[in-house]
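The records we work with from here on pair a chain with its fold. These numbers are not coordinates but entries in a learned vocabulary of local backbone shapes. To see the layout at work, look at the sequence and tokens printed below.

. . .
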Amino acid sequence: MSQIILVTGGARSGKSSHAEARTRSFPGERIYVATSRVYDDEMRDRIDRHIADRGDGWTTIEEPVNLAEVLDQTDGRGPRLVDCLTLWLSNLMLDGREWEPAAKTLIETLSRQTSPVILVSNEVGMGIVPENALARAFRDAQGWLNQRVAVVADEVQFVVAGLPLQIKGPASE
């Protein structure tokens, strides 16, 4: 039986490092599913730092939109780390795609996985209300997406200041 683990938190909270360590705890090929797109040199540098920090022993698949398809294609090979749902959602919205059907497909895909999936996502609704409609729509969609993934997740962890807090799962039950 698969384990679905959602790791959420704010920007630079330590959630990616925690998710990577958690992924290493499972046997099998470690697969990193990167959802970011390279828009500029700063983003390229950020991605290169992530790759260097991760080190050897990872297979990286770059997929900004077709996340459910990648999870189905890699199931059975080992744990998959999806970093991150926030960029995946923003890619969908910026491409003008409907995010809710994509989220429904993702949830259905997660429910049939046989290998662990660790998903990283940002908590974006803890600050001020954005001033423009797109930003408010994104903030709301991210909150709803996180809730939907949390329902099907076996574990949910909130990372703050590099420290994970178990929200759902073995330690909190």
Observations:
- The beta strands are 4-9, 30-34, 58-62, 80-83, 117-122, 155-160, 163-168.
- The radius of gyration is 15 Å.
- The chain is about 45% helix and 20% strand.
